[in-house]
Design brief:
Blueprint lengths: L1 E13 L3 E3 L2 E3 L3 E3 L7 H14 L4 H4 L12 H14 L2 E11 L9 H12 L6 E6 L5 H4 L3 E12 L3
Parallel strand pairs: 5-6
Antiparallel strand pairs: 1-4, 1-7, 2-3, 5-7
């Protein structure tokens, strides 16, 4: 077994789609970033890389590399999952938290969970997505951005 944790945060800006766990959320603003800025997919990707002991998203998908311009979180997770499989592991469990003041994500929680499970190629019962706000504190509490944290447990497959 291996465990990893990941974190990501991006600013909310006009003119971008809001994507969380591969699910497009209707909102007037989306997240700014070199890629699609899917903070949930990025936090999970960082957790997977951490569990493998292979650095972080910036190591493998640097914003200085034009190949990753506007890349989807789904694409990045797919690349990372290939590393996980080559190392002989599979995803046992993911526990993630999205921290946002806006938009209200509760109506989308189940869809985000199922979307993330689909991206990971696992049953939704192996994925948990929690929603939190900061009760108005800090940049996220002012609605300036969205953050996500994730903990991933990998298990050896075929052993």
């Amino acid at each position: 077994m291996r465990i990893g944790q990941g974190y990501d945060v991006h600013a909310l800006v006009a003119g971008r789609a809001l994507v969380l766990g591969g699910v497009r959320i209707p909102h007037a603003r989306g997240l700014a970033g070199h890629s699609d800025a899917d903070v949930l997919a990025h936090a999970v990707g960082d957790a997977l890389l951490g569990a493998l002991g292979e650095g972080d998203l910036g190591t493998h998908f640097p914003s200085s590399d034009a190949r990753w311009k506007d890349a989807s979180g789904a694409l990045l997770l797919g690349e990372i999952l290939q590393r996980v499989a080559r190392a002989g592991f599979g995803v046992a469990n993911v526990d993630a938290t999205i921290v946002a003041r806006e938009p209200r994500l509760a109506p989308h929680q189940a869809q985000i969970r199922e979307g993330l499970a689909k991206l990971l190629g696992v049953e939704a019962t192996r994925v948990n997505v929690k929603l939190k706000s900061t009760d108005g504190l800090g940049a996220i509490g002012r609605g300036e951005g969205i953050a996500a944290q994730a903990v991933v447990l990998l298990e050896r497959v075929g052993a």
